[in-house]
Amino acid sequence: MAGGPTLIGSVQRALHLLDAVGASERPVTAKALARAVGLPLPTTYHLLRTLVHEGYLCRLDDGYVLGEQVTGLRRRNGRQALLPRIRPVLRALRDELHAAAYLSLYSGGEIRLIDVVDGPATPSVDLWVGVHEAAHATAFGKCILSCLDAEGRRAYLAQARLADLTPNTITDARVLEQRLAESGDVFNDREEYLLGTACLATPVRAPGVIGAIAISLPARRLRSAQPLSLRRASARVSRTFAMTP
Q1: Against a cut of 0.90, is the pTM above it?
Q2: Which H or E run contains 200?
Q3: Keywords on this record (predicted)?
Q4: Neighbours of 187 (CB within 10 A)
Q5: 38, 105, 123, 173: least buried by Cβ within 10 Å?
């Protein structure tokens, strides 16, 4: 009979210490933590030193508090926790338009692809060039660039190389700026990232959030795509972000 999973005791003990510190509203001393977790004091000190060194705890004069690594995880994963509420919107968009659906966000000065909903009949684009490096050639990248203020966009484009990915890729920053200004609230990629593939995107906006909802489909079907459906999906996702503290 197979036994239970192999567990690493030191990891368990370190996690228990993190839980104990996180459960307290005030700094917790090493002696109090040792009692709370049921560990010998020398072992507790050893684990606490490691957690402080790695940034998961911070040692103050009167005890230990959670460190920057933990608060950073909270910030980074807060939006990820919304995916169960956002995924149905992307799935409905995929099924309605028969196209792969994407959510991307601007975070930390970079454009990040957060989620993709595709299927056997609606395959996603092979992202052979990184999303951040190809913002000028993707619909959601251009959409997010349009949402940045002029200074932020200039700073982004100054450090970006407008790589020539296909014969249709815009590689002149001035032409790109003009296209962004002319696009309204729906942005397209007409075989600029990948020949044979087109994309549409529209902004996701909420306090502290800049992003885009996008779809990809064969270029021959671009005219049949319904921007209204895309706008409805982005409005729903924007409300989800706006309602989350």
Answers
A1: no
A2: strand 197-206
A3: DNA-binding, Transcription, Transcription regulation
A4: 24
A5: 38
State yes or no: pLDDT of 15 exceeds 50: yes
* C-alpha dist (Å) from residue 222 to 61, 152, 167, 189, 231: 63, 30, 18, 10, 16
Q: Which CATH architecture has domain 79-242?
A: 2-Layer Sandwich (3.30)
Find residue 107's DSSP bridge partners.
Answer: 110
pLDDT digits (tens, 9 = 90+) for 192-213: 999 999 999 999 999 989 999 9
Which amino acid makes up residue 85? R
For 68: left if phi > 0, alpha if psi spans -120 to 50, otherwise beta; the answer is: alpha
Sign of CA dihedral 90, 110, 55, 66: negative
User: 156: burial class by Cβ within 10 Å (0-12, 13-18, 19+)?
Assistant: buried
Rounded CA separation 48/54 (Å)? 10
For residue 52, the surrounding DSSP H or E stretch is helix 41-53
Q: Name 134's Cβ contacts closer than 8 Å, sequence gap at least 6.
A: 141, 163, 165, 193
Tokens of 114: 């957060």
If DSSP codes are grouped into helix, strand and coil, which group holds residue 125?
coil
Q: What is the CATH number of domain 9-74?
A: 1.10.10.10
Burial class (CB in 10 A: 0-12, 13-18, 19+), 60: exposed
Angstrom distance (rounded) from CA 185 to CA 203:
7
Cα 58 to its chain centre, rounded Å, is 27
Task: Look up residue 232 and give its two tokens.
Answer: 């409805």
Please count the other Cβ atoms lying within 10 Å of the Cβ belonging to residue 19. Answer: 12
Cα–Cα distance measured from residue 209 to residue 205, given in angstroms and rounded to the nearest whole number: 6
DSSP 8-state symbol, 115 = E
